[in-house]
């Protein structure tokens, strides 16, 4: 849904740019402003939907790699503490 809104927004903004270039000599910007506002609205809506989905997805538990990294960090800290006690 978010990707569809971003694509529609890009298309709307491109149409607005084209309409602005055509309307420049005549001074009638109503159609161009309509497409510009629609493009901005779809862009904002897509961003809000993406942000809402990211906040609603549950966080995955730490993977085995992260656990191994934590264990390696703890063992390195323990080794440095032991060296400090020996000195």
How is this fold's topology laid out?
Layout lengths: L1 H22 L6 H27 L7 H23 L1
Helix pairs in contact: 1-2
How many domains would you count in the coordinates? Answer: 1
In DSSP terms (H or I, runs of 4 or more residues), the helix count works out at 3
Number of strand elements: 0
Largest sheet: none
User: How helix-rich are the residues, as a percent range?
Assistant: over 70%
Averaged pLDDT, please?
A: 76
Strand content: under 5%
What is the CA–CA distance across the termini?
Answer: 62 Å
The helix-and-strand class reads mainly alpha
Supply Rg: 27 Å
In one word, what is the shape? Answer: elongated
Helix-strand sequence = HHH
Uncertain segments of ≥5 residues (pLDDT<50)?
none
Would you kindly provide a written description of the structure presented here, covering whatever features stand out?
- The protein has one domain (2-86).
- The chain is built from 3 helices and no strands.
- The chain has helices at 2-23, 30-56, 64-86.
- α1 (2-23) packs antiparallel against α2.
- The protein is elongated.
- The mean pLDDT is 76.
């Amino acid at each position: 849904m978010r990707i569809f809104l971003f694509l529609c927004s890009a298309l709307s903004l491109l149409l607005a740019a084209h309409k602005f270039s055509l309307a420049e000599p005549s001074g009638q910007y109503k159609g161009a402003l309509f497409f510009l506002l629609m493009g901005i609205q779809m862009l904002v809506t897509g961003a809000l939907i993406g942000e809402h989905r990211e906040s609603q997805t549950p966080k995955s538990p730490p993977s085995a790699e992260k656990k191994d990294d934590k264990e390696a960090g703890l063992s390195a800290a323990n080794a440095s503490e032991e060296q400090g006690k020996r000195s």
